[in-house]
C-alpha cells in the first residue's frame, strides 16, 4: 500500500506532464469476448496511418474475463478524420467531441481522440469543455481510475499500461488518477462510478478515494438531473444493484440521487428481484426501479394528504405528483416513465380491494403486470398482510391469462 501511495504522490507532481515508458503486457484475450466490429474499426483507423486502441472498461473487463458492456476506441486521429473514414459515422458531443460509428439502429461504437489534460472548468471546478487533443500519455491521465486507463493494441496483442492499471487489476484495487479531491471536483459523477466499479468487480477502494468521497459528496448537487438519470440506470439495472445501493448508503451518496428515500426491506427485495430477472435475461424497466425507491415517500405523503382530503383517489394522485416533482429536481425522469410510476402506485389500491366485478378490467389493464409484481414484492417485505391479496391475483391470472410476463415494457432499458 505504501508503495502505491508513494507512486501516486510522485505521479501527482508530474500529473498532466510526461509519464515514464509504459509496460506492454502480452495478452491472449478470449476471442469470444472481443467485438468483431470494434476490431474492424481499430484496423480501419490504423490502416489509414493513425494510432488506435481499444481502451477503458473493455480492456479492464477482458483482463478479468468478463464480457465488456461496450467497446471504446481511442486514437490520435481527429474526430473529423475519423468521421471521414467511416461512411456510417457521425460527430457528436460538445463537452466531449466524439465520433459514433454506426452498425445498426441500436449498435454504435464510440471513437474518442486522445485528449490532453487541459480542460475548461466552471467556477465550481466542474469540467465544461475538454476538447484539447493530445497524445496517448496525456489521454491516460484524463481518465478516471487506473484500471480504466489501459489500452489494447490489437496488432501486437499487448495491453499498454502507463499508470499501474495492471498492478491494480492484479491486486483488485481501485485508485484514482491524480488528486482525488480535484478529480471529484472536476466531475463528481466519478464518485458514483467508483462505487459501481467497486461492487461490479468486487475490488477495494483506495483509502484516499473513500475520504475524498466523504468530503466531495455534496458536489453531486451540481450534476444535471438528466445525467444522473443515466447513471441511476447503470447503478441499479444490473446483477448487483442491491449491493450498490447499500454502498451508496454507506458512503452517504444515496441522498444525492434519492433524497426522499429511506432504507427499507421493500427496496432490498425488489432490487434483488430485478437482478435475478437480468440474470435470467428477462426484461426490466426503470419505471419499476423508481416506483420502488419512491414508494415509501409516496405513502407518507399520502397519509398526510388523506387527513385533509377525503378521496383516496385524489389523495393518492396528489401524493404521487408531489413525490415525482421533488424527485425530478435531482434525477430527471422521462414523461412516459413518470406516467407508469404513477399508474403502478394508483393500481395498488385497486388491487388491494379485490372487487370481483373489476377483476377482468384490471387484468386487461396494460399496467397490470407491473402493479402485480409490485404488490407481490410488497407482500414479501413491508406488507406481509397482503399475502392473500397477492395470491388472489396470482390465481386470477392463471384463470384468465395463463401466459403473461412480468415487468415487461417495450421501453425497457438494460444498460
Ligand atoms: P462500463 O462500460 O462497464 O460501465 P467503463 O469503464 O467502460 O465501464 P464508460 O462510461 O463506458 O465506462 O467509459 C469508458 C472509459 O472512459 C472509462 O473506462 C474511462 O477510461 C473513461 N471515462 C468514462 N467516464 C469518465 C469520467 N467521468 N472521467 C474520466 N474518465 C472517464
Ligand atoms: Mg464501457
Report what the structure shows.
The chain is α+β, with helices and mostly antiparallel strands and 415 residues long. The protein folds into 3 domains: 1-171, Beta Polymerase, domain 2 (2-Layer Sandwich), CATH 3.30.460; 175-255, Hydrophobic Seed Protein; 258-412, cca-adding enzyme, domain 2 (Orthogonal Bundle), CATH 1.10.3090. It has 18 helices and 12 strands. It has helices at 2-14, 36-47, 57-63, 79-85, 136-142, 165-171, 180-186, 189-201, 207-216, 225-236, 241-250, 265-279, 286-308, 312-327, 335-353, 359-363, 368-379, 387-400; strands spanning 23-26, 52-55, 72-75, 89-92, 98-102, 108-113, 120-121, 127-129, 150-153, 158-161, 173-174, 204-205. The strands form 3 sheets. An 8-stranded mixed sheet has the order 1-10-9-2-3-6-5-4. Strand 7 and strand 8 (127-129) form a beta hairpin. Helix 7 packs across helix 9 (207-216) and helix 14 runs antiparallel to helix 15. The radius of gyration is 24 Å and the shape is elongated. It starts with a helix and ends in a 15-residue tail after the last helix. 36% of the residues are buried. Bound molecules: adenosine-5'-triphosphate and magnesium ion. Magnesium ion binds at residues 56-57, 69-70, 72.
Taken in chain order, the helices and strands follow as HEHEHEHEEEEEHEEHEHHEHHHHHHHHHH
Please give the order of strands in the largest beta sheet. 1-10-9-2-3-6-5-4
The CATH superfamily of the largest domain bears the name Beta Polymerase, domain 2
Largest sheet: 8 strands, mixed
Query: Could you say which overall geometry the principal axes of the C-alpha atoms support?
Result: elongated
What is the CATH T-level topology of the largest domain? Answer: Beta Polymerase, domain 2
Question: What fraction strand?
Answer: 5-15%
Amino acid at each position: 500500500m505504501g508503495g502505491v501511495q508513494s507512486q501516486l504522490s510522485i505521479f501527482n507532481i508530474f500529473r498532466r506532464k510526461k509519464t515514464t515508458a509504459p509496460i506492454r503486457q502480452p495478452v491472449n484475450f478470449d476471442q469470444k469476448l472481443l467485438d468483431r466490429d470494434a476490431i474492424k474499426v481499430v484496423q480501419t483507423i490504423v490502416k489509414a496511418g493513425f494510432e488506435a486502441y481499444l481502451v477503458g472498461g473493455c480492456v479492464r473487463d477482458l483482463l478479468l474475463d468478463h464480457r465488456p458492456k461496450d467497446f471504446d476506441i481511442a486514437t490520435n486521429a481527429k474526430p473529423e478524420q475519423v468521421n471521414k473514414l467511416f461512411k456510417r459515422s457521425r460527430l457528436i458531443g460538445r463537452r466531449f467531441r466524439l465520433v459514433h460509428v454506426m452498425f445498426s439502429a441500436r449498435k454504435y461504437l464510440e471513437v474518442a481522440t486522445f485528449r490532453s489534460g487541459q480542460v475548461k472548468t466552471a467556477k465550481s471546478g466542474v469540467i465544461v469543455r475538454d476538447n484539447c487533443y493530445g497524445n496517448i500519455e496525456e489521454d491516460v491521465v484524463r481518465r478516471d481510475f487506473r484500471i480504466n486507463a489501459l489500452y489494447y493494441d490489437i496488432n501486437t496483442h499487448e495491453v499498454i499500461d502507463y499508470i499501474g492499471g495492471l498492478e491494480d487489476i492484479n491486486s483488485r484495487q481501485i485508485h484514482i488518477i491524480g488528486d482525488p479531491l480535484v478529480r471529484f471536483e472536476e466531475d463528481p459523477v466519478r464518485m458514483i462510478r467508483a462505487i459501481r466499479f467497486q461492487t461490479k468487480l468486487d475490488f477495494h477502494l483506495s483509502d484516499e478515494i473513500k475520504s475524498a468521497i466523504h468530503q466531495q459528496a455534496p458536489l453531486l448537487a451540481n450534476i444535471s438531473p438528466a445525467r444522473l438519470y443515466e447513471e441511476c440506470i447503470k447503478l441499479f439495472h444490473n446483477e448487483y444493484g442491491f449491493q450498490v445501493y447499500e454502498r451508496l448508503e454507506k458512503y452517504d451518496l444515496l441522498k444525492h440521487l434519492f433524497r426522499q428515500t429511506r432504507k427499507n426491506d421493500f427496496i432490498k427485495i425488489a432490487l434483488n428481484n430485478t437482478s435475478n430477472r437480468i440474470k435470467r435475461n428477462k426484461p426490466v424497466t426503470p419505471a419499476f426501479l423508481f416506483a420502488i425507491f419512491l414508494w415509501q415517500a409516496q405513502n407518507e405523503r399520502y397519509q398526510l394528504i388523506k387527513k385533509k382530503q377525503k378521496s383516496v383517489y385524489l389523495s393518492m394522485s396528489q401524493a404521487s405528483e408531489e413525490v415525482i416533482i421533488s424527485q425530478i429536481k435531482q434525477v430527471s425522469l422521462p414523461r412516459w416513465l413518470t406516467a407508469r410510476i404513477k399508474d403502478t402506485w394508483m393500481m395498488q389500491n385497486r388491487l388491494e380491494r379485490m372487487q370481483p366485478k373489476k377483476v377482468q378490467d384490471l387484468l386487461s389493464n396494460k399496467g397490470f403486470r407491473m402493479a402485480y409484481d409490485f404488490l407481490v414484492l410488497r407482500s414479501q417485505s413491508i406488507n406481509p398482510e397482503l399475502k392473500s391479496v397477492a395470491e388472489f391475483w396470482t390465481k386470477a391470472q392463471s384463470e384468465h391469462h395463463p401466459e403473461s410476463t412480468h415487468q415487461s415494457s417495450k421501453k425497457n432499458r438494460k444498460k
